[in-house]
Each structure stands twice: as C-alpha cells, then as structure tokens.
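Hey team,

Filing this mostly as a record. A colleague (T.K.) asked me to run one chain through the structure pipeline before their review meeting, and I want the input and output archived in the tracker in case anyone asks later how it was produced. No errors, nothing strange. Just documentation.

Input sequence:
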Amino acid sequence: MTKFLSLLGLLTATSVFAQLTVKQDGSSESYIYVTDQVLYVADDISVTKDAGATNENAKAGIYLRDDAQLIQGASQSTSNQGTGFISVYQDSNSDSYDYNFWSAPVASADASNNFSLVSQVFNPGDSNITAASSTYTGSWNGSGESGISYTNRASLSISTAWLYKFNEATNSWAYLGNSGTVAPGYGFTMKGTNVTTGGTYNVDTNNQYYEFRGRANSGDIVVNLSSTEGNVTLAGNPYPSALDLTAFFNDADNDGVSAIMYWDEDRTVNSHYYVDNKGGYGTWIPGPDGLGQYTVPTFMNYDNNGNATTSNGSYGEDVARRYAPIGQGLMLKRNGNGSGTATGNSTATFKNEHRVYVKEGASSVFRNPENDNRSLTRFHVIFDDYSHYRDMILNYHERATLGFDRGSDAPHPMDGGQKEAYFNIQDDGNEQGQKNLVIQSVPFDMNMSIPIAFKLNQQGRVRIKAAEELNVPYYRVLLLDTQDNMRYPINGQSISIGDMVTAQLTLPAGTYENRFFIVFEDAPEEDPGHPDTRSAIADAFDFVQDNRAKQLEVANPEMHKVDEVNIYDMSGKLVYYAYGLGSASRYSFPTYNFADGVYMVRLVTENDGVVSYKMSVMNR
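Output structure:
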C-alpha cells in the first residue's frame, strides 16, 4: 500500500511523476510513505523540512518501507534538491566481529553532496517515521538491537574502529571514523553490533537494522578506477533501489572494469584479530549470456602483513549477485592487457538506467532460474585433506574466443595463499598478455584442451571434481597430464547412484602452467555403464528432511569421517555443498532457501564411501 499524506506536484494514475515535491510547513506532517512497491519519478525530487525540524523528528520526507524502492528516470534533467530526506532501511546480517561493505543510497543536503556517517545513519525509532541518532564508540564492539521492532528499541552504538574507505590511487585503506565523509558511489566498511554465537550452520542471529536518511542519490555518479591493472576501487550501489550489475558492467563507459568482487568472511569466527579471521573475495561477471556468474571466495587466514596463509576448508555463500541491493558495497577490479597496463576508461559511471526494482532475496532473480539454459562446468579443486578449495567455472559458448573476453572471462583473485588453481591463457596475439582466470568461456570443440594451472609452495594432494554440469556438450571431462599422457576422469554420469568421479594426484612444490589440461570425450557407441559405488556404509547413516525446521538432519552414530556433502536438484544442478565435515554424531544442513521439490543428497566419507539419499523439500 502507498500512503500519500501530502503530495505537491504532478501525480498521474500510473504513478509516474514529471516532478515530485514534498514540503513541510511548520510542525505539520507532510510526507510520502511507500511499502512493498516501487515509487517511480521521471525527473527530480525536492523534499523540504521545516527550518526548525531535525532529521530525527521531522515528519517530512519519503519513507521507503518493506522492500519499497525509489527509481528516477534515465532522462532526469536536474539534481534532487531540498533540506528534507528520503528514509530507507537496510539490515546487516552481522555481529560485532563481522565486516560488511556498504555504499550509501543518500547524500547530505549541503553543497558537499557527500555521505556523512555521523549525521545520516540512524537507529529506526519507535514508529515507522521517527528515528534516533546513532552514537559512536571507540570500543571494538558496537551494540544495538537485533531484528526490527518499533517498541523499546535499544540505542545504536557503532564502533569507529572498523570504519574505513579505500584509496584506489595508493591501493590502501584509509581510516574513516565517524567524522569522515564518503562521496556518492564509493564504499566503506563497517562491522555489525553485539556478540552472537550459533551452530555450524546457524550463525550471526544478530541482524542490526540501520536507517539511512538524506537526499536521494540519482543521475550519473562517477568513481575513479585504479591506474594499475588488477587493483580495485571500493564502490557500491549508490541508489535507493536495486542495481543491475549486468547493465552497469556492459555499459561502454565502464569498460575499465574487468570484474566485480564481493567480500565475504567466515562468520563463525568471533575475533577482531586479523590473524584469526578467515575471509576472501568472490568474483562476479555477467558471463557470456548476461545472466551473471559468481565464484565463491576461498576463506583464508592472513598473517600480520596481510598475506594469505592457510584455510580450514570454509568458503563463502553461494548466491547469485547480479542485482546489488540497496547499500551494497563492492570492489571494481581494473581491466588491463595482462602485462600490468590498465586498459579502458579510467572511471566508472553508475546511471539511472542501471536501476531496477528487484526485491532483495527474490529467488526468481537472485538465484539462477530452474530453466537455466547456460552450458558450463563448475570445477572444485580441493587441496590436501580438504584444507581449502577453489571454485572455478568453464563456460561453453559460440561467441567466446580462446583469448580474454571481458565479461565472459574473469580474472582470478589469486588469494589462495600456499596453494592455488587457475585457468591460464597466454598471449593471444591481440596485445593481451598472460592472464590467470577463475571463470573462462570458450567456443567448445570436442578436441580442444583448456590449460589449468596449479601452484603449490609444498608437496600436497590435489583433487578436481565437476561439482556442477549444466547442459554440457560432452560425455566425459578429464584432467590430462601431458608429462605421462595420463587422463584422469573428473565427472561421472549419474548422480542418482552416486558415481561422481574425482581426479586425484600428488604434486611436489612448484608452479605447473603448461602441464595439465581439461579435455573432453564424446559418448561411446555403446554406453558400458558405470558401477554402483554405493557401499555397505550407507546403512550407517540416517537422513531426515525436517521441513518444519527447514533443514536436513543426518545421524552418524558410528562417527564415520565425512569428507563432503552435495545436494542436487533433479536437473543435476548443485544447490548446496559442504567439505571437510569430520567425524560427528549428527549434522544439520539448511534447506530454508530451497524451492519446493525433490533433491538428491550425496554424502562422501573417508576412503570415498558414497551414500545417496532422495529428499522432498516443502517450505511453504
């Protein structure tokens, strides 16, 4: 429902405005209140509060609530004006130990047009339109109230210790503090509030809500990119609406960006010490079809100099990232020629035409649709005894080339510390030097071979598996070792009987860039079939899909060591995975975000014992 208490300007029956003005006179209430829908304004907005009113108590503005968003027209002719504000909420899903990357959807109403933390971040008040000013503490832990409630709210105290922005010119962090400002389009870091604990799969139950109040950002917003290939700019969605990253990335003005990176971290770790935490950057690009592709980060420990060291097998959340929600901060990676020289425009521009009305978490757009017609293989390269792994995607597309294709190929973060895996392309003859990729697109041919490289600082075991196969054009995919001409099968042919294959080899320390290749085989004239590798160990596990609790429960009374659990939908798409689970009497795996339907669970124990289970999920 949209509630208009006072609206001055032109309003049509189709909710399209030529210009929108909201003005408070004295202590009167004069505001627009929007819930659960889009407010579209073709041109500029002017919101003015009474001279004696503060932002906390002014009842003059535009209030966006319950997934409401504001979009302004691509042809907006003048900037937004006025001393009033729009108000929009965003939640943190983090506690005092966890970083989030933010980008403000509003700016100050003064001439600077910058975002100010101390004057524009509020604690939602005891009604839908009032707010309380946030406070700041030098303590390492901020405090507030989890969830959103309009009665007896605790005060919001933000820790200044973790407020930073990033200087793309020097490739270094800059302390922001509560007194600093951030220009529109740029991002900043902030940790959440309170200290929470939870089980392995249910962490950070604290969810602080922040209220942003200020002049709505709109129109073209320009940020600077680094002058060095591979360096980053901390930017973000600058608007009070969702942002279509495919539209942003494919805009000709933004050809200086080679990939978009999302920070994620292990939220089970409750420590402020740098060497204790684990985190990393996931990589997003539009992909050859523009639907968006994302590889999750490998969570690494870091030493006091910021160098990645080791990991414990944890990894980032596997979600689609095409539509950046309100307040989302992200890193823009600089494009280049593979030899260190930056290419493309030196700035990136956010535009109103990149804005879309997409509710945060909407399954139809934030996750891949069931009728996904892309053709790809998702590889997981697993090191040692599941110490960590690298998520990689190989696309098969007729418009791709064997060289670097911006938007279809993604540069590798190369943050795997002591051991790493990556696709490697050499000079393609078009002034493109060597590039290490985490996502690669190729024009498929059954006889082609795709270089895959490994880097190890000490001897170790390497496993590679086809974790996901969508509409693949081959019968088998294998790892070719050109040193002895051995071919190691990577994929199986039927998830229903648990015969997925993982190639395994042990390598001495070194860098292997011209030895290993991904190769393919067509189906034989007669399919010899594959043996059912299920073992008697299957009787040792009990599976229960608890639709009430929205989770899969697995009992392991004999305490077998579980190496991995994979859950597939009935099309064969991998929808959940967990590695290195160890020996426990019981495991729980979340299914709250699964669509209703039948799924196949594949559990792998030590020594490659395989257990399969078919479950039905009903989340309605």
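Quick notes for T.K.: The chain has a mean pLDDT of 84. The two ends are 24 Å apart (CA to CA).
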